[in-house]
Input
Amino acid sequence: MLSLETRRVLVLGGTHEGAELARRLAGTEFADIEAITSLAGRLELATLLPGRVRTGGFGGAAGLKRYLANQQIAFVIDATHPFATTISAHAAEACAGEGVALLRIDRPAWNIPPGTRWIAVDSMDDAAGALEGLGRRPFLTVGRRGLEAFARLEGVRFLVRLLAAPAEPLPLIDYEVVVARPPHSLGSERRLMEAHRIDVLVTKESGGEATASKIEAARARDIPVVAVRRPPMRNREAVAGVDAALAWLRERL
Output
């Protein structure tokens, strides 16, 4: 069992919320605690964050449990992507084993504008199957790891948005890459879709304000949105944003 006098917080980051949390924890209000931000795969963010940053995996739930004990972590705030189910499950197991308080930041779901041509699916494979007959210029905003499901699709030219330029060719027959980091304005999303003649948007149902503008831009262009449903996070204490997470932390310090 860890002592709450430790005043050391581990932030599982790699998201807009994780970066904001790191910045807020580096402020004067929390000067009496040490925050560590963990980035599993977003190494390009390491130099952009204040405070102590670690990169790479933990080695599963057992490795994370050892890390919590060795670093005397008193609190863990899981601000990972809504689809990062593996690290969230490992965090729940490790924190339970070490008696560490765990909080999950769950982004609010998008408010889908009326009239949006919304097509909800359960997986990337389902999303690839749903594209048949919908358009020839799909806009993929599903991240690098989800692209294999679209590898065999012919007769379409993908626009793929990534957070960093890919080091290797993508597993797609015909594509173009645009590199950009959220948040994205409604105006920039509309201009991008118009310039590339986008006729269908493919996304993960990740929610949050930073990427909501693409949904409104798709509705304005009257193009279908193929959205992979968010996986459920069960048995977690959760809040909707950074302000609520900091309030949770204040109550325990």
